[in-house]
């Protein structure tokens, strides 16, 4: 039971880091694009930020696997945090898998 609790805590920490990175990248992207709203050509930097945002919010947010009306206002953090938990679980179990496979 103690080992399971440790896994869950690690997954939640990874999810919180993922959520923080998501929010930071979105804030930087919005800041970079807000001054250039009417420019036809966007810079490579902004294109990279948009691509990173799409990757970080995949699959739940990017694919719109929910209706926006289900989560009005601050409730949008429910699917965003669910997305971060999904990423955290995949990262955690992938790292554990390769750590066991590469261990001599």
List the domain count as a whole number. Answer: 1
- Helix proportion range: 55-70%
- Please give the count of helices: 3
Share in β-strands: under 5%
The string of secondary-structure elements, in order, is HHH
What is the overall shape?
Answer: globular
Structural class determined from secondary elements: mainly alpha
**Gyration radius, to the nearest Å?**
17 Å
Distance between the termini: 27 Å
Q: Tell me how many strands there are.
A: 0
Q: Spans with pLDDT under 50 lasting ≥5 residues?
A: none
| Residue-averaged pLDDT | 85
Largest sheet: none
Short structural summary:
The protein has 104 residues and is an all-alpha fold. The protein has helices spanning 2-34, 44-56, 77-102.
How would you characterize this protein structure?
The model has no long low-confidence stretch (mean pLDDT 85). The protein has helices at 2-34, 44-56, 77-102. With 104 residues, the chain is an all-alpha fold. It has one domain (2-102).
């Amino acid at each position: 039971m103690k080992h399971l609790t440790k896994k869950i805590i690690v997954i939640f920490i990874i999810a919180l880091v993922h959520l923080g990175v998501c929010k930071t990248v979105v804030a930087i992207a919005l800041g970079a694009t807000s001054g250039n709203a009417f420019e036809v050509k966007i810079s490579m930097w902004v294109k990279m930020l948009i691509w990173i945002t799409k990757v970080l919010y995949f699959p739940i947010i990017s694919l719109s696997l929910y209706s926006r009306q289900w989560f009005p206002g601050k409730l949008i953090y429910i699917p965003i945090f669910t997305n971060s938990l999904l990423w955290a679980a995949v990262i955690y179990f992938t790292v554990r898998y390769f750590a066991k496979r590469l261990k001599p």
